[in-house]
Specification:
- It comes from Chitinibacter bivalviorum.
- This is Class I SAM-dependent methyltransferase.
- With about 220 residues, the chain is of the alpha/beta class.
- The protein has one domain: Vaccinia Virus protein VP39 (Rossmann fold, 3-Layer(aba) Sandwich), CATH 3.40.50.150.
- Strands 3-2-1-4-5-7-6 form a seven-stranded mixed beta sheet, with helices on both faces.
- Helix 3 packs parallel to helix 4 and helix 6 packs parallel to helix 7.
- The chain is globular, with a radius of gyration of 17 Å.
Amino acid sequence: MTVQTLALSEPLRDYFMQSALREPDILRQLREETMGHRVAKMSLAPEQGALLIFLLRMMGAKRYIEVGSFLGYSSIAAAIGMGPDGEVVACDICDEFTVQAESWWKRAGVDHQATMHLGRGIETLPRLIEEGAAGTFDCMLIDADKPNYPNYYEYALQLVRQGGLIILDNMFLNGRVAAPHEKHPRSVAILHEFNRQLRDDQRVEHCILPTGDGMTLLLKR
């Protein structure tokens, strides 16, 4: 018999949020203000933010990069996890979102730690590599346009140091990856196959967690 992950009922979810989740106040404020946003689902779930903070602290990370910043939840969590001497590099294509993210950085008191690169991640990442950033990051989070996940992953393998962490969000696409069909967007078929490729990729240690919309953790060998 296979032990299955417990689904969170509404009462259990309420208990978790009120009694079992350690969420910094600034992240709670950002999450609550984001709840009414038209694309609020683009933000990390609070338990994912807590996991990111935990992992970065555990590994003593000091340099973090992300593709897809939205309103700043993940980048602020990373700055908190690394402490005041940690460096956050954020990449996003949306000017509207990046302006708000930078505003939240200031409210969180981490704006001196963070740098925003506005533009397509598929262009920003190779430029950073050309500028000498290869192997200098402890952790990279990929949470952007899904069709480019395989490309972002290959850049991540160059940007992250040996023993560093690569995190990919939304690997379940609301469950659609389990049974992709022709009516689904192309991104579903891409992630369906990409999940298998990551499982078999011997360049990394692999773990996928059923948290949020599916979160993959990869340790670069």
